[in-house]
């Protein structure tokens, strides 16, 4: 059933922004009927990479879910007259780096944490289904927040600790835009580091203080992205959901609820919309924070504000299908638990 890229849509939310959107199509899978990270963790939910273009220069924000997707992105940009491409990786997860090889002759920027995580997970990512092989590494490691120019467009790359410890987001001050990577998802964030949710909350507050006018996430609704993105209430919805997860201790009835009754307040913001495939994400999130599956993070550590680990704790839910069989060496699921 492999016909990767056939359903990818090219959206133009702004004259200088390309959005390469694929998935969120009911009943359609892109790679395989069997559980795999590409379909279950990205395509079913909707996945979007971006490019900022000015004149002959482009900055690609994530290389999408396959080499085919990445080639299509490069073709579109070159057809626009782009001669110089740089890449910024939002974080190390497979659905954001699978197309790196197509840009291996370009500058590929990432945080030091992204390089560390990719190095640690290289073998698992190269032998996953589908494999990312060879996994091409970033070749420019950013030292903290970094300002660059894409043509005449200033771009501020900022590191945040939301969703994943190594996240890099982008702010375009001239157009009041925030490219959020996976720090924000519609309707809910995907919890990969359940022991560090409190840290993520703190950085959500920091991100909200930037007062971005519009927000473009990597997992969201195509129609909203095409229309220019989400407003600041998107951050509020994410905060409310994370706070609800943090309130789970001892709340077994709450833990059993489906997404809409678990956190009706996030939908009341108007920022996010219920989308049934995220029910699996929510269930897995609840299991991750309550320790119902795999090796449980303790609820004590969940509320700690300990400094970030050099490697992110990786959720060990056996029902996880977003990044199956992926863990850092030495963590509890480092032997690659089979997907169920
Ligand atoms: Zn993602």
Describe the structure in your own words.
This protein has one domain (9-302): Metallo-beta-lactamase, Chain A. It is 29% helix and 23% strand. Residues 294-321 and 323-340 have low confidence and may be disordered. It has helices at 37-43, 67-79, 94-97, 112-126, 197-208, 222-226, 233-246, 252-255, 259-262, 264-268, 278-290, 299-302; strands at residues 9-14, 17-22, 47-54, 57-61, 84-88, 107-111, 140-142, 146-150, 153-162, 164-172, 177-185, 214-219. It has 340 residues and is α/β, with parallel strands linked by helices. It is globular and about 55 Å long. The strands form two sheets. A seven-stranded mixed beta sheet has the order 1-2-3-4-5-6-7. It binds zinc ion (ZN). Zinc ion is lined by residues 93, 95-96, 182, 218-219. Residues 93, 95-96, 182, 218-219 line the site of zinc ion (ZN).
Looking at the overall shape, the CATH architecture is 4-Layer Sandwich
Helicity, as a percent range = 25-40%
Biggest β-sheet: strands ordered side by side in the sheet = 1-2-3-4-5-6-7
CATH topology: Metallo-beta-lactamase, Chain A
Please identify which CATH superfamily we are dealing with.
Answer: Ribonuclease Z/Hydroxyacylglutathione hydrolase-like
Radius of gyration, CA atoms, in whole angstroms: 18 Å
Shape: globular
In this entry the ligands are: zinc ion
How would you characterize the largest beta sheet?
7 strands, mixed
Report the oligomer: single chain
- Report the total helices: 12
Structural class: alpha/beta
What is the straight-line distance between the termini?
Answer: 21 Å
């Amino acid at each position: 059933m492999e016909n990767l890229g056939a359903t990818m849509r090219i959206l133009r939310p702004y004259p200088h922004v390309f959005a390469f959107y694929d998935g969120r199509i009911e009943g359609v899978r892109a790679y395989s009927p069997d559980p795999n990270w590409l379909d279950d963790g990205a395509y079913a939910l909707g996945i979007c990479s971006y490019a900022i273009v000015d004149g002959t220069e482009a900055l690609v924000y994530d290389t999408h879910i396959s080499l085919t997707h990445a080639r299509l992105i490069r073709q579109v940009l070159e057809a626009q007259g782009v001669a110089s491409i740089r890449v910024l990786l939002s974080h190390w997860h497979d659905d954001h780096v699978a197309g790196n090889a197509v840009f291996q002759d370009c500058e590929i920027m990432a945080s030091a944490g992204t390089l560390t995580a990719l190095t640690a997970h290289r073998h698992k990512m190269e032998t996953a289904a589908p494999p990312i092989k060879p996994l091409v590494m970033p070749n420019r490691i950013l030292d903290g927040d970094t300002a660059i120019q894409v043509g005449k467009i200033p771009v501020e790359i900022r590191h945040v600790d939301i969703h994943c410890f190594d996240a890099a987001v982008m702010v375009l001050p001239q157009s009041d835009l925030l490219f959020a990577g996976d720090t924000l998802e519609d309707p809910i964030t995907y919890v990969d580091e359940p022991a560090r949710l409190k840290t993520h909350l703190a950085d959500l507050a920091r991100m909200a203080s930037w007062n971005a006018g519009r927000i473009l996430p990597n997992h969201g609704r195509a129609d909203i992205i095409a229309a220019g993105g989400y407003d600041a209430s998107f951050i509020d919805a994410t905060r409310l959901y994370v706070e609800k997860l943090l309130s789970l201790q001892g709340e077994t009835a709450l833990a059993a609820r489906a997404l809409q009754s678990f956190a009706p307040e996030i939908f009341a913001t108007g920022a996010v919309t219920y989308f049934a495939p995220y029910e699996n994400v929510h269930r897995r999130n609840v299991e991750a924070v309550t320790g119902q599956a795999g090796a449980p993070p303790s609820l004590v550590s969940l509320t700690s504000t300990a400094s970030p680990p050099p490697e992110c704790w990786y959720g060990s839910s056996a029902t996880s299908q977003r990044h199956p069989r992926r863990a850092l060496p030495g963590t509890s699921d480092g032997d690659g638990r089979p997907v169920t």
